Amino acid sequence: HFLELGNLHKKYDTxxxxxxLMFHIFKLIGSGAAAQVVxxxxxxxxxxTIQLGSALGxxxxxxxxxxxxxxxxxxxxxxxxxxLGRHPWKKLPLYSLSHLVGAFLGAATVYLQYYDAIQTFSGxxxxxxxxxxxxxxxxxxxxxxxxxxxxxxxQVVATALFLLCCVAxxxxxxxxxxxxxxxxxxxxxxxxxxxxxxxxxxxxxxxARDLGPRLFTFVAGWGEEVFKAGGxxxxxxxxxxxxxxxxxxxxxxxxxxxxxxxxxxxEKKSRRTILGSxxxxxxxxxxxxxxxxxxx
Amino acid sequence: HFLELGNLHKKYDTxxxxxxLMFHIFKLIGSGAAAQVVxxxxxxxxxxTIQLGSALGxxxxxxxxxxxxxxxxxxxxxxxxxxLGRHPWKKLPLYSLSHLVGAFLGAATVYLQYYDAIQTFSGxxxxxxxxxxxxxxxxxxxxxxxxxxxxxxxQVVATALFLLCCVAxxxxxxxxxxxxxxxxxxxxxxxxxxxxxxxxxxxxxxxARDLGPRLFTFVAGWGEEVFKAGGxxxxxxxxxxxxxxxxxxxxxxxxxxxxxxxxxxxEKKSRRTILGSxxxxxxxxxxxxxxxxxxx
Amino acid sequence: HFLELGNLHKKYDTxxxxxxLMFHIFKLIGSGAAAQVVxxxxxxxxxxTIQLGSALGxxxxxxxxxxxxxxxxxxxxxxxxxxLGRHPWKKLPLYSLSHLVGAFLGAATVYLQYYDAIQTFSGxxxxxxxxxxxxxxxxxxxxxxxxxxxxxxxQVVATALFLLCCVAxxxxxxxxxxxxxxxxxxxxxxxxxxxxxxxxxxxxxxxARDLGPRLFTFVAGWGEEVFKAGGxxxxxxxxxxxxxxxxxxxxxxxxxxxxxxxxxxxEKKSRRTILGSxxxxxxxxxxxxxxxxxxx
Amino acid sequence: HFLELGNLHKKYDTxxxxxxLMFHIFKLIGSGAAAQVVxxxxxxxxxxTIQLGSALGxxxxxxxxxxxxxxxxxxxxxxxxxxLGRHPWKKLPLYSLSHLVGAFLGAATVYLQYYDAIQTFSGxxxxxxxxxxxxxxxxxxxxxxxxxxxxxxxQVVATALFLLCCVAxxxxxxxxxxxxxxxxxxxxxxxxxxxxxxxxxxxxxxxARDLGPRLFTFVAGWGEEVFKAGGxxxxxxxxxxxxxxxxxxxxxxxxxxxxxxxxxxxEKKSRRTILGSxxxxxxxxxxxxxxxxxxx
Lengths: 296, 296, 296, 296
Prior knowledge:
homotetramer, mainly alpha, Glycerol uptake facilitator protein, 12 helices, 0% strand, Aquaporin_3 (chains A, B, C, D), membrane (chains A, B, C, D), transport (chains A, B, C, D), MIP/Aquaporin (chains A, B, C, D), Aquaporin-like (chains A, B, C, D)
């Protein structure tokens, strides 16, 4: 009993550190792609390469940490699971904090790597709006045309669709995936969001990935404008994704998962096989919870 | 017997709802990509990102519903199967109606999500033609150079090729695919159509996906011009795909499927294995029909 | 014995017809992508979408016919095998003729589908050179900067690399591939050629794919200029690929295949397994030859 | 004993020759993509196609040689393994020299293939800087905005991330990959680097891939400016990747590999299975070392 508790404790720390690390990578690659296009004024990429960067950042973030942390990447996903009773509420704050810290550190690394480029591009002035703005490299701001309600709707719809697809990709009863295809499809999903739902406010989808870098830019010299811009936009990508995420997860539960015909017995077995081969770092005690823990 | 009928009924409803849902997603992502590029005047994507959106929309539409509905997505495909005697005619109207409703709802969601953007872009005027036209976000219109016969030929050729490839990807005897690759290849096929056969009239390929959103735009304020434009173009993408689809399916039947050398015995077995592992929601009574039901 | 001969004969015809068909599709998609970009003056795609079209055309060409014809696609590949003694010389003329006819028919279909677009774009004048040239949609012409020797070197180098990679992807002893990944990788290889070796003369790589459409344009109204252009360029993409193809195949044989450590016994077994599951239409009498017959 | 030595000797030569060959292909495709875009002044590709060329070059380089040489591609990776005690130090010089020679020959082939294009583009003057510069086709030069320290940081961060992901993709305990997906993911990783970390100095990441072509351009007519440019930039992409590579490898070791829960017994078995099927040319004596030898 004591031994198990000790192991659990050790595992908690690992998950915490790794989730940070993963976010680090995720942010680093995704924001790096934006930094590159913005500061090169479009000579080193275009809108598509930024989206490819976001997508591939997620792909390799998951590939790096999938064996150990199970690749928890999004507080929205964690919350959905808590509400559905498939994830302990007490883990939520720690996970969310790790996401936030990781995203903050990722933004800091991008700033370090693109320091010269950002300084040259902006003439040393770190601005949130205007032709030489650089704050958009790190977190989301609404387009000029977007109203408050429009932004809310955009984020609810986008996150609902995003989570619906995430849960579907996770659901082994809905159809299995070969080892190694799953992270690639999550990347494809993020690319999908970028090419289909990116022009209103940059598809934040993830409260931690948006707030962490915003806090970094606040500290690093962009100042309080990062919170004031867009009529106090900053809290929309924190609140709306939770609403959309719950909506998407519930939709999947009601429309798809409720209609699976396999018996739990059978299902449990097939799940264990797939998880057993693909995710060796996870112990298989709560197989139901596990499936949902893999992604996001 | 009664029990089975009851289950069938329940399954029918599920299929209906899910096909709608899938079309919803499909339309949402595909049209969203067009809305984004049009309303951002090309700053948030280009022709390729629109095609990527269409392709990825299909990919995730299939991934979400593949386990339950078998991913029926296109009335043309259903009709081809009916003609070949592999699908009951009585299911056709219900399926087609679900497609139509789903596509209508998908278009409505895109309009909701891009409402601010479309209003700002068009200055509040919902137009079908001209530099500020926005109707093309939702359904197909012919290019200026296209004659009536040219449009007919384009859609017959494109749908024939499309269905030929769809049926080939479905045919387990022609060569198996790993679980999870099939939806990705359908997406690649749609991308192929977009980059190769998109400039004449936007490759509708699918009567429901074209008519549903057209009805929505008619209702939502674009008015009767959506039916008048292009010399009454609207019925071409409804009729021509059926002709092309039959042509493509028959070509495959005659040139490829007729030449398979495996005995039905052997084939049945390999099919069951693949369907059994990949598509658990389907009961395997009519294995021949099933294979053809998976896609489109 | 008589029965077997009869079956072989039947199979020959099938291969012939299917190879034509495949080329048809292949050409149709690849040239369609070029027709779309050229006639839309770049509003419906760019250089990358043309290359994606070529690549995806090959992918679906192979997916359609892989189970029956084994996907012979390139006379260069067939000749290399004949020289190495792995393919009967007597089959070569029939195969090459099928390629040629298929490519001719593919070009005709593209012209049919894009007839209005080409007429509008060119003002009715079918030209080989100048800003309104449309001959480049169908077959290769050298860039202005390219000398005769430069074109020869370009095609030898490109075809050598192309065949080297084709043979490597085929070689099961070099490392197996999951079912269904092979056609995708051939597509990726063609994309590679397009982005890396396309600006000198459009990477023909394939004598039949170049000559067939050239003959079509000669007949369809572009006239004898299609043979005169580029200082009589037309025969370079017919001769040079054979030289490069042999070079690439031999390089692979000497550098890689000669160093495999598995015994023939072992190898034969693993090959049979993979072919047996993936390519059911092939009888496995001459397993060595078979492996090489799959591609190109 | 003597026999084994003889075999080892033979294998050494093979590895040497093949690594050269692979680099040849790798460079040829990657630099070819750059040559194509530069000399066509952007009509035959853009920034994305150059990155696709680099990525696909790596993919097919690995596919060609994976069965025999185990696809050693980067001296940084070899050095990391030596430091960690998993690779014999004495092999390092020979491997690195092969890399260098292969990259030199690859650059020479690109120059040969694009000789006419480069001469026409540059007016016969082989320049390192300015609008008609062509040296950037072959190796990396810093952007104007980049300071010395900025370049150092960029390369350390980029190589750390690159190696971290490489090692993660290699680590079978972290999650297996289907045969054939591994080379594709390495290509995706290189694409990631290109779209996210390419605008500061072109992500050299690899000392041999940068120095070999630089030596070629020095010899071929660009002169000593290739070493003087960017304030003597040439040695930064040689030294910084070693620092970053070690950092990335160690980070993975400490954060992920140290936390794997499988016993060595179990691990050894699963590794052998995967290597045994995928990489038949490797003898499995030191299974730990082997895993790390596969990539880079």
